[in-house]
Amino acid sequence: MAQSLYRILDQVSRPNFLPFLLRFVAEVQSSGSGSVSPPRLRVDPGGRKSARPEFNVVAPLVAHDTLRGRQLPMLASPLDVRMFGALPQVRRRRRRRRHLVSTANASFAAMSKKKTLLERLADGPVIGDGGFVFALEKRGYIKAGPWTPEVNIEYPEAVKQLHREFLRAGSDVMQALTFYASDDKLENRGNVAQAKYTGKAINQAACDIAAEVAREGGALVAGGISQTPTYLSGKGKAAVQEEFRKQVKVFADNKVDFLICEYFEHVEEIIWAIEVCRESGLTVAATMCIGPEGDLHGVSAAECAVQMAKAGASVVGINCHFDPQTVLEAIKLMKEGLEKEGLKVYLMAQPLAFHTPDANKQGFIDLPEFPFALEPRICTRWDIHKYAREAYNLGVRYIGGCCGFEPYHVRAIAEELAVERGKLPAASEKHDPWGEGLKMHTKPWVRARSRRDFWANINPASGRPFSASLSKPDGWGVTAGDRDLIQKKDKTSEEELKTLFSRQFC
């Protein structure tokens, strides 16, 4: 903070004094130790008092100026920006015009209004977050199998920390961890989360956590809904939409910035989800977990995009189930379908951070490594640089990740698109571009790797002498409407398991 203050003071004699001042206030606002609060700021470079009620800068106590090696004055509470006039650098500029006052306050007013998702997309790329359920399963907070998010109540600090890491890495959106948080999923196949906590409480806790972290960095908050056991069991549109409606009510009550319908294998169900989300009046983004072959009922990727757009989604695309390359191939088909129909919506990609060239129509869940042996397939940060650039060049403007995406993957997106976004994420403070930090390494052969052409062309080895490059995915062909997908509250029985085991090796 001391450095930020003196950066402003050093620049006060220059024409860009105001941008530096606004940057300082923004840093105070986004830090954990200061804030900007209306309604009074008296800005008077000449040191004269202004009676106009403006904004008020609340600065933290600052002790040491590392740039000059001296103590800063201790700032006791509200700091009028007019105090700058008492400092030597400012006294020499007392003839500056009062028009800075109105300009500064107009700028502060603009800063105080958070841009919407659609406004941000119009300005340039928006970066999503990563894969919460996989990351928290690895950390010991979510159970593989149900993949439900009762962690929001049981271990809220774990969720909060992961949000913060994605925020620091460059995420513009804090998506509430509400994946698979519909009431029917929380009580499916022996899950007790619904009885113990209720879906309403879990969704509320997720919103609280996401909103708290979003405020720390000016991020948007999104509430999300996903496919339901009710749909897979063939219970019909009314029953399915009732499940969605319970979640959306919590999101609307919490005034989230927009809604995401994600992880749908069937376009019919996501259309029902979009319809419910549209009832809230909030902007809707919609992504399906499909590849170039389309949904599991045979609807093409292009037609899925068209139907989502016509249902009222402002942003459409794909998340999960496939790697970045496959997802972008499918989004290209979506784009072509939308253009053919003359539909103008934004495109969104949130793929896996696993390589899945051998996955079939249902994606990585058919791979025998799913979910406990996928690590050899993980994308490197350099793979994600390539993905971010290719997505942007394709016209995708909401660029994030799903399962397997860790904060360093999101940082790779933010660093690749730094020019388009006009900034680097905070996490780049500890990450020089393209391995340049290795110049400081003790070993000369490692220092020789501190260059882009090395990492951009790396072909990583698995370190497994007898490891196959590809797997043989399962191909059961089971989807919504099949008897085997009818869901229930009871646990899966031993007899059912024996039947499944016998089928697996046929």
Question: Could you explain how this protein is built, in words?
Answer:
There is one protein chain. This protein is an alpha/beta fold and 506 residues long. Helices cover 42% and strands 9% of the residues. It is built from 22 helices and 13 strands. It has helices at 2-10, 17-30, 88-91, 99-112, 117-123, 132-138, 151-154, 156-169, 183-186, 193-196, 199-217, 229-232, 237-253, 267-278, 301-311, 324-341, 381-394, 407-416, 418-421, 444-447, 452-456, 494-504; strands at residues 35-37, 56-58, 64-65, 70-71, 78-79, 126-127, 173-175, 220-225, 258-261, 283-288, 315-319, 346-350, 396-399. An eight-stranded parallel sheet has the order 6-13-12-11-10-9-8-7. Helix 17 (381-394) links the parallel strand 12 (346-350) and strand 13 (396-399). Helix 1 packs antiparallel against helix 2 and helix 16 (324-341) packs parallel to helix 17 (381-394). It is globular and about 65 Å long. The chain starts with a helix and ends with a helix. The model is unreliable at 1-20 and 28-111 (pLDDT under 50).
| Structural class assignment | alpha/beta
Unreliable segments (pLDDT under 50, ≥5 consecutive)?
A: 1-20, 28-111
Strand content: 5-15%
Based on CA inertia axes, which overall geometry fits? globular
Main sheet makeup: 8 strands, parallel
Give the termini separation.
65 Å
Nearest-angstrom radius of gyration?
26 Å
SS summary, helix count: 22
Helix content: 40-55%
Rounded average pLDDT = 83
